[in-house]
Design a protein that fits this description.
Two copies of one chain form a homodimer. Chain A has nine helices and no strands. The longest helix of chain A has 24 residues. In chain A, helix 3 runs antiparallel to helix 4 and helix 4 packs across helix 5. The radius of gyration of chain A is 19 Å and the shape is elongated. By secondary structure, the first copy, chain A, is mostly helical. Chains A and B meet through helix 8 and helix 9 of A and helix 8 and helix 9 of B. Chain A binds a DNA duplex through helix 2.
Chain lengths: 190, 190
DNA sequence: GCTAAAACCTAGGAGGCATAGGTTTGCGGA
DNA sequence: TCCGCAAACCTATGCCTCCTAGGTTTTAGC
């Protein structure tokens, strides 16, 4: 009978697609195998185990996110760069929820070191704030603020956790204003 | 043989304790049953199913968090209130990670409506910012900013996601300063 | 002591992860 | 062209988890 032509890459891609549908926490080797018309055990030739698969998805998703962030911040500075970065990130979280969740997965330092996606995200994050002229360690503090705010916002948005009737897009824009303001008037450590 | 004396409440408490150890996403009815020296099926007399158990833990944890937030903000205003609120929340997230995760669980509106913990958290959140004098809808926007930032920070902290060597406590204090500043100089909608 | 509800049991099915070890497919080289 | 080998895929199996059905034992109140 015709073979499915499995590959670690194809399995990873299918897992990422599945994650976008059912959530990164709910992907299943069995479901993937069913999708390929293959027995569960067959996947273990391409992926070490569940954890390995999730890590692969995380690395792949990080690469895709890095691409988006790069184009969104290219040639921009200041508030424009901040908004481009944040909106690109939010778009990714909304349109590819499973992949986004994957980018938040805790992974070993060795994996991060070997993942160009993770590396590029960090580099872009630092670079896109250069217009605000913050010195270290304040720059790192500021990045931690932004990262926390974005991640929290996307997580709450994804779980429909904002119950108040206030328009969410309006809140989002107000938050970006507030963050820009916080960066502009940042009080540098003595 | 001696009975374990199970109760929906005792099962919920045990589940919360277990969540603090293994993570809210990793609690297991089997593990709880083992802990009580009881068969898996016995637990179904007290909780409907896994989802019901998680919801119960979420409601209980929300109550505990509300207590802490209440005492942390009592008699304070402005920056003091902000810091008290934020630090109490962070303490909770760090010392009771499973319970904290439970408070973030998406629950049906009916459950929220019937959970005094969830209601009190919302009330305290709005009340503790009264000193900044923000009108609606800006107050809601500001609260969404704080909530996002805290939730994101705690999640990243819990997963050891802050890789940079910069002292985390220092970053946290800097972030609180920035948030206080953002609230103090908030630009109200026209 | 009797009774009814609450607490707990055994049995069993469905589905998920993972390993061991065997079979088929397809491709490069003699 | 055919051989052999590696990759792709298989069956069988074991363990864990959730959950249901239906039965038994304990406990508390009258």
């Amino acid at each position: 009978m015709a073979r499915a032509g499995l590959t670690a890459d194809r399995v990873t891609e299918a897992a990422a697609d599945l994650a976008d549908v059912v959530g990164f926490d709910n992907i299943t080797l069995s479901a993937l195998a069913r999708g390929f018309g293959v027995a569960d055990a067959s996947l273990y030739s391409h992926v070490k185990n569940m954890r390995d698969l999730r890590t692969r998805v995380a690395v792949r998703a990080a690469g895709e996110l890095a691409d988006r962030l790069a184009t969104a911040t290219a040639g921009r500075a200041g508030k424009e760069s901040l908004a481009g970065f944040a909106n690109a990130w939010r778009d990714f979280a909304r349109h590819c929820p499973g992949r986004y969740q994957a980018t938040q997965m805790p992974v070993e330092p060795e994996v991060v070191a070997g993942s160009s996606g993770h590396q590029r995200i960090m580099a872009i994050t630092y670079a896109h704030l250069s217009g605000y002229g913050l010195p270290e360690p304040d720059l790192t503090d500021a990045i931690r603020l932004l990262r926390s705010t974005y991640q929290g916002f996307f997580a709450i948005e994804a779980s429909s956790g904002f119950g108040h009737p206030r328009d969410l897009q309006a809140s989002w824009e107000k938050i970006l204003d507030a963050l820009d303001n916080a960066l502009t008037h940042w009080r540098v450590s003595s």
